[in-house]
Structures are given as structure tokens and as C-alpha cells.
Amino acid sequence: MIEVGRLVVKIAGRDADLKGIVVEILENNYVLIDGQVRRRKCNIMHLEPLDKVLKIPKKATHEEVVAALKKEGIEVKAKKKKEAEKGERPRKQRKTKKKEVAEEAKEIKPKEEKVKKETKVKEVKKEKPKKEIKDKK
Amino acid sequence: MVTGRQKSRTLRRVHRRTPGGKTVLHYKKRKPSKAKCGRCGDILKGIKSERPYKMQNMAKTKKTVSRPYGGNLCSKCMRAVIKEKIKQ
Fold first, then answer.
1. What is the ipTM of this complex?
2. Assign residue B58 a region: left if phi > 0, alpha if psi is -120 to 50, beta otherwise?
3. What CATH number is attached to the domain comprising A68?
4. Fewer beta carbons below 10 Å: N end or C end of chain A?
């Protein structure tokens, strides 16, 4: 009943009640499905096979599956655009943060040098009175 | 002496630990009944039953199940309904 190209309906999980095609048969009751459902490994027990078998090549890509489903009159919503947008947004934020950190580090460096110079001067001042005390003794 | 409403069981009793370390009894209104499957009547899992003022501030994921018919049908009944739909 389960074979490559078989039209199935998913009956478990958040993709339940959506149609898909068996793309590849994996080990022990597991198959790779794609279509309206997300492309993923799936237990046969979570699928309800339908009557139709579509012609698709083995290990077909998502686009090939979508084209095959379209011929049957099953439309698949495009999700790729949303994923691309989500992927780009956080990357941009990270770049800006790194730049700011680098600029702050540059600004801090001269301040540290100034502090070091002041401390050196203070140390010299402290040493002098100690010597005087020793001399008095 | 305790008041009359504290003697009856209309209010549920909640143990609360105070900042001083004592355990104190609080009297609160009872929770509403749990959500049930619309087909078989089983109690639905993963759905909180609280008073409306708490449900307001709760996340949506705590009030439903992310599945078609989630929060209305149990998983077994959902499968049966989908299979019936396919046969038609």
C-alpha cells in the first residue's frame, strides 16, 4: 500500500488533515513525505493512504512534488519566503552588535592608559614619604 | 472562631507558605470543570482549566493543542473524523 508516489493524508500532529506524497521509503515503518505537509520522516501509522499514486522520481525535490500535486488539483502554500526572512533578520542584528562592541573597546583603551599613568605617579609620591620615615628612624 | 463560609466546602483550600515560613490556609473559588472531547467525552490533555481571570493572561499554547480540532477533540477522535472525511 505504501510506495513512492502514493498520495497520503497525515492523521497525527500539527500537520494532520494535510495531503502529501511518499518521496522515499526509509527503514522500519518510516517514510519521507512531502507536499502540503512539511518535508519530514514519518511513521506509516501516522498516515492514511489514498487511492492515487503519482509519478515522481525517487528522492524527488520539494518543487517536483509541488508540481505533481498541482496536476492533481492540490495546491501547496509557499513557505520558503517566510523562512528566508526569518533567517536574515537575526543575522543583521548580530552584525550591528559586534560592531558596537568593537567600537566601545577602542574607546576604552585610551582611558585605561590614562589611569595607568596616574597610578604610577601616585606610587612615586607614596614611596617618598616612606623613605623619609626610614631616614628619621 | 472561623466564619461560616470557611466551614463549608464551597471554597477550595490552598496551602500557601508565607515569607515568614508559616503555612497558611487560603480559601479560593473552585476551578471550573476540565475540557472534554466533543465526540467521546474523554478529558482533554494539555488544556488548563482555570478561572477566566487567569485564563486571560495565559499563553495560547496552554489553552489549546496545536493540531487540527485541538482543544475540541481528543487525538483518537480527530483521526477517526479525518478518516471519515476521506471516505466521503
1. 0.77
2. beta
3. 2.30.30.30
4. C
